[in-house]
User: Which sequence fits this backbone?
């Protein structure tokens, strides 16, 4: 049985150095996750659009592929809009709070 050494993290007094260390280690912050998610939704939208164009041009033999691609894009867009709505609701709730 192999026993690994303890990895102790130093106490950091500044939040800025903590953020820099997280980025150096390879951890992503919220904006990077958000941008990546939006790019994925955009890619699904483009694939669905291309599948529809290919179907109209007669390049697709199986229509179910087109339906699946467009439904993936539709569901991803609906999910993105719901997340946006929840974020806006949370922001508005925070702005209503009295300090």
Assistant:
């Amino acid at each position: 049985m192999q026993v690994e050494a303890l990895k102790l993290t130093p106490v950091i007094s500044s939040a800025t150095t903590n953020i820099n260390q997280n980025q150096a280690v390879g951890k992503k912050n919220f904006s990077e996750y958000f941008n990546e998610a939006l790019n994925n939704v955009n890619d699904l939208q483009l694939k669905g659009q291309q599948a529809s164009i290919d179907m109209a041009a007669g390049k697709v033999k199986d229509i179910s592929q087109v339906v699946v691609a467009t439904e993936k894009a539709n569901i991803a867009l609906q999910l993105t809009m719901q997340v946006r709505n929840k974020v806006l609701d949370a922001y508005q709730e925070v702005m209503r709070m009295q300090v």
User: Anything to note?
Assistant: Residues 12 and 18 are 7 Å apart (CA to CA).
